[in-house]
Amino acid sequence: MDIDDEYFNDPEFQLLIQKYLKYLLESLREVKANLYNRDFEKLRQFGHNLKGVAGGYGFDELSKLGGKIETVSSSENFDFLKNLISDFEASLKKRMPTV
What is the pTM of this model? Predict the structure, then answer.
C-alpha cells in the first residue's frame, strides 16, 4: 500500500479501508452490468469517483485505473473498458484475497 505508515497503522483508518474495499467489491457486479449494458455514463461516474476516492485511501493503482475508466468511458470504447474493468477486479482481489 502506498500510504504513510502513521495512517496505515491507525485502527480507525484500517476500518475505513476495509469498508471502502467492501463497497468496491459490492460495486463490481453493478460495474460489470453497466459495462455489458453499455451504460458509459455510469461507468464514467464510477471511474471518476474511483479516481478521486481510492487515492485518499492510499490505493494509487486503483485511482489510476479510475482515471482510465473515466476517460475511456467518454470515448465509449467497449473493448478497452472491458480490459480496464478486468484490471480493476484483479487489483481489488489482490487487496482482498478472500474474493
Answer: 0.85
Q: What is the total count of domains within the chain?
A: 1
CB 17 within 8 Å of CB 40: no
Task: Please choose, from the candidates 81, 1, 92, the residue with its C-alpha nearest in 3D space to the C-alpha of residue 34.
Answer: 81
On whether residue 76 sits in a domain, the answer given is yes
Extract the C-alpha cell encoding 35. Answer: 459495462
Phi, psi of 52 (to 5 degrees): -75, -40
pLDDT tens per residue, range 69-92: 999 999 999 999 999 999 999 999
Q: Indicate whether 92 belongs to any domain.
A: yes
C-alpha grid cell, residue 1: 500500500
Q: Is residue 1 part of a domain?
A: no
